Structure formats: C-alpha cells, structure tokens
Amino acid sequence: MWIDSHCHLDASAFDRDRDEVVAEARAGGVEGIVNLPGHVAHFAAAQASRQRYGCFTGFGIHPMWVAGPAGRSTRDDLAVLRSWIERERPDLIGEIGLDFFVEDTDVLEQEWFFAEQLKLAREFDLPVSLHVRRSQDRILWHLRRIRVRGGFAHAFNGSLQQAEAFIDLGFCLGFGGTATFPRAHRIRALLRQIPLENIVVETDAPDMPPSFLGGMGAKIRNSPAYLPRIGAMLAEVRGVSSATLASATRDNVRRILCTPSREG
C-alpha cells in the first residue's frame, strides 16, 4: 500500500469527480493522501476533504500565492493561518517554501512568509512540506535558523550534498513524475543514492504528470490513482521491488507525521 506524500486534491481539476478519484486511488492500493492547499481560501475545502476522505492535511501559504503569478496573499493571512492551525490541528504546515524559478517575483516577501510559517511550525511542533525550486541553499539557511520537526522536501531536484543537508535536518525527499523520465539523470541518481528511509513518493496531482501521461506539457490531469504506477517505475530505478518501496515510503510518511495510520 502506498501513501501519496504530496497532492492537491482540492484543485478545481478534481471538482467534477473527486469522489471517484479517491475511490480509484484506494482501489489501486493508495491507502493515504497528504493534501496540501496553498492559500487561505482553500483551507475550508481541504478540511472538508480531511473529514470526507481521511486525508492527512496541511495548511500553508504557497510562495506562488505570495509574490508570484497569483500574488493574492497579504500579511494578514498569517493570522488566518494561525487560527486554522489552532482550531483544526493539521497534520503539517504546507505547502510552503521558496520559488526562485519564476521571474519578477518578490524574493524578500517570499522569504518573510516562509520564515513566519516556519515559526508557526516550530511553535505548534508540526512538520512542514517544502516547495524547493531553485532555492535549496536559501531554504537550508532558514531551516538552520528556525528549527522545525522536519518534514518533506517536495519534488527535490538539488545536489547530493544538498539532499544530505535536508536529511540531516530531519527531512524526507519527495520523488514523483519527474523521476519517471529516462533523461532525468540527476534525479534518478539521487533516488539511487540517498537512504531508503529518507524517500517518499508523490504525485503533486493534478500537476507534475509522469512520463506515461506525456510529461509537463501534457494536458492530461495527474491523479493520486497513478501513484502505484509511478511508484513501480521509481522502484525499478532504485533497484528494489514495488512492495519494498511502497512499504518503506509509507512508513517514512507516517514517521514524519507521527499520526496513526488512516485510510485516505
């Protein structure tokens, strides 16, 4: 059985058939989904999915809602986030982080939001799910300054040295659709090199489509139901059985979240 460590189940792409998507994922061997909204306006829907499907759930403000193309968060949203954490006690804080890939972004504002959310994670003793795009070293700088309980580095694409630094700080590294491409040499090398106890698998659904859906430019929606097929491809790269990778990564998610197993 698998756990999808990073999914956006409340994205509008699932509005027409969310129940069916979750049912298909469960039938295929996905026992848990970590659902991560990225804006305060999405928290209520995420909490509803937590109650309906038993998802592991995080609350957080995504960097692209801070100072990216969406750019709709204000500093007042931190108080809203705090109130949701106090009232609903999520399983983690996320998706939060830094994104230095997108041009014309306010880096300082991103960093302010990231640091403040790390402080909330530390205060409430919650792990975090990190968005780490071309920002590994800066995120590590913040994590060393504001220590949290660990968490997941989503869609990790850094160096082995950076990977080891995240692991030393209590993080598991997320691998998904990108690693299904034969030309993703660096990511595949990382998948083979880092300890199995520091790997989690993810879909990032409805985004980050794997090779069998056509890749990043594809119009086909990614889904948590595809996780077993993605996991089987990652297991082949790693050189282990699908059952071994499923068991190890499931245990890794549970260890990070410190939450009893639930169907999701």
Descriptive notes:
The chain is α/β, with parallel strands linked by helices and about 260 residues long. The protein has one domain (about 1-255): TIM Barrel. It is about 40% helix and about 15% strand. The protein has ten helices and eight strands. It has helices at about 20-30, 45-55, 65, 75-90, 105-125, 135-145, 160-170, 185-195, 225-240, 240-255, and strands at about 1-5, 30-35, 55-60, 90-100, 130-135, 150-155, 170-175, 200. The protein has an eight-stranded parallel beta sheet, with helices on both faces. Helix 1 (about 20-30) links the parallel strand 1 (about 1-5) and strand 2. Helix 9 (about 225-240) crosses helix 10. The radius of gyration is 17 Å and the shape is globular. The N and C termini lie close together (about 10 Å). Mean pLDDT is about 95; it is low at about 260-264.
Secondary-structure blueprint of this entry?
Elements: E1 2-7, H1 18-28, E2 30-35, H2 43-53, E3 56-59, H3 63-66, H4 77-88, E4 92-99, H5 107-123, E5 128-133, H6 136-145, E6 151-154, H7 160-168, E7 171-175, H8 185-193, E8 199-201, H9 227-238, H10 242-257
Parallel strand pairs: 1-2, 2-3, 3-4, 4-5, 5-6, 6-7, 7-8
Keywords:
alpha/beta, TIM Barrel, eight-stranded parallel beta sheet, 10 helices, 8 strands, 42% helix
